[in-house]
């Protein structure tokens, strides 16, 4: 009975893995924002990538609101804001 | 009876929004990989960001396998591969 794959213990582990993934996704662009702010150099950053980050997080945000998922909403607000900061840098730090 | 928020129609829309989000997430790094390949210049790309992209997608992949979610697995394999390409560029195109 303790060898099934849906024991509370494995469910807890699955959730922990999900929360770890969410946390890492949230901080993905933190070092990039930090470097871009320090160097004021963003020429190698593709504006298409930044645009898709912002667009995709807005779509995920919409999805998160519809399925009423707090973690999805929170994670995508954070990543969207970091994407907006990168876009601001991209449009401001003209090289 | 047609004004509830869980009609098949709104569920379909929610799923479509989710698929759109997945698609956009999958292609996020495509324009960045293309630009980096064309310019051979990756100095402004932060290696920490690329590392977190690879790590987070591996964690999400693990999560996807555990919850047996095809879309989560597929999307994260694609983003992980693009992250690995960016890491290869970052380590190869020394400026």
What key attributes describe this structure?
homodimer, mainly alpha, Monooxygenase, 95 residues
Q: Which helices and strands occur, and which strands form pairs?
A:
The structure is a homodimer of 95-residue chains.
Chain A: H1 8-27, H2 30-39, H3 47-66, H4 70-92
Helix pairs in contact in A: 1-4, 2-4, 3-4
Summarize the structure.
Chain A has 95 residues and is an all-alpha fold.
Descriptive report:
Two copies of one chain form a homodimer. Chain A is mainly alpha-helical and 95 residues long. Chain A has a single domain (8-92), classed as Monooxygenase. Chain A contains four helices and no strands. In chain A, α1 runs parallel beside α4 (70-92), α2 (30-39) packs parallel to α4 (70-92) and α3 packs antiparallel against α4. Chain A starts with 7 loop residues before the first helix and ends with a helix. The mean pLDDT of chain A is 91. Chain A binds chain B through residues 10, 13-14, 17-18, 20-21, 24-25, 27-29, 31-32, 34-36, 39, 41-46, 48-49, 52-53, 55-56, 59-60, 62-63, 66-67, and chain B through 10, 13-14, 17-18, 20-21, 24-25, 27-32, 34-36, 39, 41-46, 48-49, 52-53, 55-56, 59-60, 62-63, 66-67.
